[in-house]
Each structure stands twice: as structure tokens, then as C-alpha cells.
Design a protein that fits this description.
This protein is α+β, with helices and mostly antiparallel strands. It is 39% helix and 18% strand. It has seven helices and seven strands. Helix 2 runs antiparallel to helix 3. The longest helix is centred in the middle third of the chain and has 17 residues. It is globular. The protein starts with 18 loop residues before the first helix and ends in a 12-residue tail after the last strand.
């Protein structure tokens, strides 16, 4: 899983005090300016040699499952995608995401279930929220740009479910938790919801 040419104007790089803050800001860049984000992916596309992408700026050389095909698919999607409102930070979502990132990092686990079988929604309930939570997780990406790019390119994910979640209009809040991971170096968990805390939206909307 991994996730920019011409005269496309691209917004300035995200500057944030922490990786979680940067990831949320980068997600909002993609949501609010999808065409500009597509421009960023066009530049990224130039770094591929077959299925291998080399990013000297990030010090990364990695083999992808699909090569530029996944990048081209993401660009085409973004060109059709209308702007969406930015995601607001949900404190309960952020704590729940941080809990999962810390537990997975310590154990070297992967996936959306906790060691005790808890789902993202059940973890939010433990923190005082509700069960209406969806989640994406990045492994091995250590910058806001590479984390969000991994989700949006969605290399090797046939249904592009991570990308679709980011651009789901009803998702209005998110919380991000990142940390060290025993196997992959870095893990970033993003929990999304239509409400600030995962509880049902008032009035059913």
C-alpha cells in the first residue's frame, strides 16, 4: 500500500506541529481542493520506474502493487470530484485513534480490530463516544503527504475503499492518532464520523 505536471497550481505544503495535525490538514487539502491534489499526484507519478517509486525528497524507494495505474486512477477520480467541506477534529475520535495506534505499534499488529476484538466503533464507545465510526490505517508512511497519498492512491486495494471513505460527504469529523510501529516504523490511524464523537447525528442527518 502506498499512496502532482503542467501548469497546475498546487497549494503550499502542509506545515503542522505534529504528524496527526499534519495528516488532518493534508486530508482537508485533498477534500477541499481535489483538482489541486490531482496536480500533486501528477508530479508524484513522474517518480515511478515500472512498479517502483523513488522519492528522493522523502528518502523512499518502494515497490508498489500496481505502479502508475493506481495513481492514474486516483487522478481521474480527483478530476471528477467536487470540493467537500473540511473535516473538523473530533476529540473522542482522536483519542480512540491514538489508542489503536499505540496498541498496534507496541504489538506490531495490523488491521482494524483490537487485540480483544474491539471494532473502531467499540473503541470510540470506550472513550465516551458512539459506534458510528469508520477507519483508515496507514503503515510505514512517516509524513502527512505520504500518509494521505497512501489512502488516496489506494495501491493494491481493488475497491479503493480508503479513498472513497475520505471523500464521503457525510463524514464531517475525524481524529488522527500516529505512533511508532514495531514492524513498519510508523502507524497512523484515522477515525471518521458524521458526528464529532461517533454518536448519531441529531435529527438523523
Amino acid at each position: 500500500m502506498l499512496a502532482i505536471a503542467g501548469a497546475v497550481v498546487v497549494a503550499a505544503p502542509v506545515v503542522a506541529a505534529s504528524l496527526p495535525d499534519g495528516v488532518l490538514a493534508e486530508l482537508n487539502f485533498a477534500r477541499t481542493q481535489p483538482q489541486n491534489y490531482a496536480g500533486a499526484l501528477r508530479a508524484y507519478r513522474q517518480k515511478f520506474r515500472g512498479n517502483v517509486v523513488e522519492d528522493r525528497r522523502e528518502g523512499v524507494s518502494a515497490e508498489t502493487a500496481e505502479g502508475v495505474r493506481a495513481v492514474d486512477d486516483a487522478i481521474a477520480f480527483l478530476e471528477r470530484q467536487g470540493p467537500l467541506p473540511p473535516l473538523s477534529r473530533g476529540d473522542v475520535l482522536a483519542v480512540s485513534a491514538r489508542d489503536h495506534a499505540a496498541a498496534q505499534g507496541k504489538r506490531g499488529d495490523v488491521g482494524h480490530l483490537s487485540a480483544d476484538g474491539a471494532t473502531p466503533g467499540q473503541r470510540a464507545v470506550r472513550r465516551g463516544g458512539g459506534i458510528y465510526v469508520s477507519e483508515t490505517i496507514s503503515y510505514g508512511s512517516a509524513t502527512p503527504v505520504s500518509v494521505v497519498r497512501q489512502f488516496i492512491v489506494d495501491d493494491g486495494v481493488a475497491d479503493r475503499s480508503h479513498r472513497r471513505l475520505i471523500f464521503t460527504p457525510k463524514m464531517r469529523f475525524a481524529g488522527v492518532g500516529c505512533g511508532k510501529h514495531r514492524m513498519f516504523g510508523t502507524v497512523c490511524v484515522v477515525d471518521f464520523s458524521a458526528s464529532r464523537d461517533g454518536k448519531p447525528v441529531a435529527g438523523g442527518r
